[in-house]
Each structure stands twice: as C-alpha cells, then as structure tokens.
Design brief:
The protein is an alpha+beta fold. It has a single domain, classed as Nucleoside Triphosphate Pyrophosphohydrolase (Alpha-Beta Complex), CATH 3.90.79.10. Helix content is 16%, strand content 35%. The protein has two helices and seven strands; from the N terminus they run E-E-E-E-H-E-E-E-H. The longest helix has 13 residues.
C-alpha cells in the first residue's frame, strides 16, 4: 500500500487594527486573487518562526514595523481548500496600533489601506474568517 503525502506550505498572516476601529489591508499584486484585498502575510522562511515571519511580512508589505513579541497569536487556519494553489497552513497574529500609523505598499502589495471594520471589501482566501476571529472579543 502506497501512502500519499500532501505537500503543505507554511505561512503567517497579520491582522493589524487601530484604536479607532480600522484594519490594515493590502491589495494583492499577483495571482491568486490579484487585485483583491487581503491581510498582510506570506511564507515562513527556513529557520524562521511563524511569529518572526509575520513581523517580517508586515514590514515588507506595509512598512509597519513590530517586534515579533508584540504580535498576539490568533491561531492556526488549516482548512483544506483555503488557498487555490494547494494546501496552505497559516498561523495568524494580531497587532493593535494607534490611529494614524503610516502604512505604505511594499513587496507583494499593489496598495495598502486602512479600512473601517464595519465597511470592508471582499477579502481573499479565508481572511474574512481570520479577521472575524481576531476581532470577536475586542
């Protein structure tokens, strides 16, 4: 009997909210979901924890800097089919910043914008679920 092993990719995402009820989103610059809005995030590099990857990706994509230990873990998201490229498991984190924190699109992002939590665009992947979990108890 042959066992099939599934290739799993490891990523990290960050929900950044402001003290006045906004969330930082990036406009994706390539497929999948090119042109769609998403949470900042990306692949965990070799030798890196998901928390370190989340802080790095946040800085690279939005110019918002946070030390890894400032990020509060929301939890893992691993539903099959959450990414059309194959099996991706992400660990999501949350960071609260003051209103007016500057953000600027960088690596992987076409644009970045602070969106009111009560007036969001459709989100790529399962990022609406991640955002809902991050903000449920806040």
């Amino acid at each position: 009997m042959t066992e099939l092993a599934e290739t799993i990719r490891y990523t990290a995402d960050v929900v950044v909210t402001t003290t006045d009820g906004r969330v930082l989103l990036i406009e994706r610059d390539w497929p999948p979901y090119e042109g769609a809005w998403a949470l900042p995030g990306g692949h965990v590099d070799p030798g890196e924890t998901s928390r370190e990857a989340a802080a790095r990706e946040l800085a690279e994509e939005t110019g918002v800097h946070a030390a890894p230990d400032e990020l509060e873990q929301i939890g893992p998201f691993d539903a099959p089919g959450r990414d059309p490229r194959g099996r991706y498991v992400t660990v999501a984190y949350h960071l609260t910043v003051v209103s007016g924190t500057p953000a600027q699109a960088g690596d992987d992002a076409r644009d970045t914008r602070w969106w009111p939590l009560n007036d969001l665009p459709p989100l790529a992947f399962d990022h609406a679920d991640i955002l809902a979990k991050a903000t449920a108890s806040r």
